[in-house]
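Repro:
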Amino acid sequence: MNAADERNVIQLPVSDAHPTAAPAQPAAPADLMNQGNLDKVRDIIFGGQMREYERRFAKLEERIQKEAADAREDSRRRFDSLENFIKQEIAALGDRLRSENQQRSQAAEEITRELRDTARSLTQKLNQLDEHASATHREIRQQILDQSKALSEEIRQKQDEITAALAREARDLRHDKTDRAALANLFTELALRLNNDFKIPGDE
């Protein structure tokens, strides 16, 4: 009920307005007759206003029902619109989640593939390094063996040269010792001759 309807409503007196007000005590037959006459008088006097009130109440009730129905319809439309909006948002969110999940799956597959390729490349490089290290080890070992043989041959040659040199020195020393003995005999003979002590065999 709006303000205009409230202004159109006429307030009835409290004492006689309500036709269903119960009497304070049981009425006598004369009182009942007077009460009936009073109801007729009241209907004559206030009947038009009561019907007007009933008409206004009916219109007010009809308008309230219409407004309630409109409010329910508007609420239903709003709820339907909200429901559709929520469904659209949920669908968009689901699509976005699926897209992100697909992108993450593709990224994970790409990373897995890159890691697999990197592991394969590292394995190949390790194998190459192992083969290179083995070849280098064999080469170094062969070089060491060759150098060891060459050094052994050089040591043997040096040893032979030293042995030959020592033999020559020994021969030279023996020869020099023999020459010194002859020289000593010569000096001894000279001294004897100077002293006239030297006797030639057969001169006696």
